[in-house]
Model the fold of this input.
Amino acid sequence: MTRTTLAAIGILTALALPALASGDAAKGEKVFNKCKACHAVGEGAKNKVGPELNGLIGRPAASVADFKYSDAMTAKGAEGMVWDEETLKAYLADPRGVVKGTKMTFAGLKKEDEIEDVIAYLDQFNADGTMK
Done:
């Protein structure tokens, strides 16, 4: 392959990737400490007060088996809400503002960089808890 072909492939690959690279996953792991009391992620993660968060990015809301969601979150899932970057940014900043009636009592993350970092951290996990 020529250098031009390799460069074109590199550019096309970069354009095809999701835009979750803005956060720092290592910093996000530290931010996730605020979430650990209620949520788990990684291999062996189980539901706690909140659902486990493996494979969260792209997952429909209220779709974790064996977790009792609030009626409000169940309704959002039925409406087609999906945990994409935009939805997560809004929800992590103001959970009760995005889903009125959610059981989640956390007030939200107020720093945009912390939100982006925790999203980058969560995006590392496949649905089975293994790392991507």
Observations:
- The helical segments are 3-16, 25-31, 71-78, 85-93, 95-98, 112-122.
